[in-house]
Write a structure and sequence with these properties.
By secondary structure, the chain is an alpha/beta fold. Helix content is 35%, strand content 25%. It has two domains: 121 residues, no CATH class; 177 residues, Vaccinia Virus protein VP39 (Rossmann fold, 3-Layer(aba) Sandwich), CATH 3.40.50. The protein binds S-adenosylmethionine.
Length: 337
């Protein structure tokens, strides 16, 4: 039996806040550079203040948003198999949010061999603290070691004292371009030991109507989530974006096989970002891209993993092939295939 991580005591919650190590200057430089690009962009991590995380949880319950319920049902089917194959005492979840699907895996781990430590890793502190407390009380004996950080910068803070299954669910990998996804997964693979496992959730390529409906819900929750990114940038950069002066737009780009989420200026306007030293002049109809969501299939997922030194061990999907879960491994020796 591998040793238990020493920094966490059984049944306890530890929260490491790593975002403080991020210089505000770096964040502000990123905001400025992204807004000066063509098309203008705001990084999706700025969706997730407490309100953004709450809105995302509401999105996951919308009838049009098939992703979460499909992935959850698939996890119910396959978690036993995943737990038996991996046999890891530590479960790490990147972009864990409310950890709502994690319980399915924790239950399967409990049946198979037990889970000693759960490591939720997310940029949104409030929701992670809530989830950590809930899970520690629901699973007696489980230790929770949360990391509040940016998974594109702080992966080295994932505890590494015992064998881990690292999971990255919700199709969040789709928020990276394929080149960024390769860069990110190469870094994930580099912090993994040989014979550790990785479970990746990918939203699958499908008909345009289903995809576009998922990002244009009839209740306008996705539109509110999209506009909320401007409130977060206002707080971070001391800016004066008026969210209602922007229209929500989401469309499927069939060439790049990705959803493109944008905010469209409803009028000519100027926006001052004081801390970022930027005065933004927008014309009526000018757009800011806030998210992409690249869709995958089995071949693209296998190739992505292989390019990053990970070997696809098992591919799982639902009967309608809406969503995929790829179990991968850092091979003990030889090239990933
Ligand atoms: C699409 S949600 C998925 C949440 C959850 N995993 C699920 O499947 O429902 C993306 C999650 O990743 C987190 N996130 C986004 N960018 C991040 C970053 N750069 N570093 C750490 N967490 C990030 C968000 O706070 C959010 O909880």
């Amino acid at each position: 039996m591998p040793a238990r991580p020493e920094s966490v005591r059984l049944g306890h919650v530890v929260v490491d806040v790593r975002l403080e190590e991020e210089t505000p200057q770096r964040v502000l430089r990123q905001i400025r550079a992204d807004l000066l690009r063509t098309p203008r962009e705001i990084a999706p991590r700025f969706f997730y203040d407490d309100r953004g995380s709450e809105l995302f949880e509401r999105i996951t319950e919308l009838p049009e948003y098939y992703q979460t319920r499909t992935e959850r049902a698939l996890l119910h089917e396959i978690s036993g198999d995943v737990a038996r194959r991996c046999g890891c005492p530590v479960l790490v979840e990147l972009g864990s949010g409310a950890s709502s699907k994690t319980r399915v895996l924790l239950d399967a781990f409990a049946d198979a061999h037990g889970c000693e430590v759960y490591v939720p890793f997310d940029v949104s502190e409030g929701i992670v603290r809530r989830a950590a407390d809930e899970l520690a009380s629901e699973y007696p004996g489980l230790s929770v070691h949360a990391v509040i950080g940016d998974f594109t910068h702080h992966l080295e803070y994932i505890p590494s004292e015992a064998r881990r299954l690292i999971i990255f669910l919700g199709g969040t990998i789709g928020n990276f371009t394929p080149a960024q996804a390769r860069d990110f997964l190469t870094r994930v693979a580099s912090v993994m030991q040989r014979d550790e496992y990785f479970l990746l959730g990918v939203d699958l390529i499908k008909d345009v109507a289903t995809l576009e409906a998922a990002y244009n819900d009839s209740q306008g929750v996705t539109a509110a989530f999209n506009r909320n990114i401007l409130n977060v940038v206002n707080a971070v950069a001391d800016a004066d974006f008026v969210p209602q002066a922007f229209e929500h737009r989401a469309f499927f780009d069939t060439v790049e096989h990705r959803i493109d989420l944008r905010l469209v200026s409803r009028r000519e306007q100027s926006v001052r970002l004081r801390r970022a030293g930027l005065l933004l002049l927008l014309r009526d109809g000018d757009e800011i891209r806030t998210e992409i969501s690249v869709k995958y299939d089995q071949r693209l997922t296998r190739e992505l993993l292989r390019d990053c030194g990970l070997e696809l061990v098992e591919w799982y999907t639902d009967p309608e092939s809406l969503f995929g879960l790829a179990l991968a491994r850092r091979p003990s020796s030889g090239a990933a295939g």
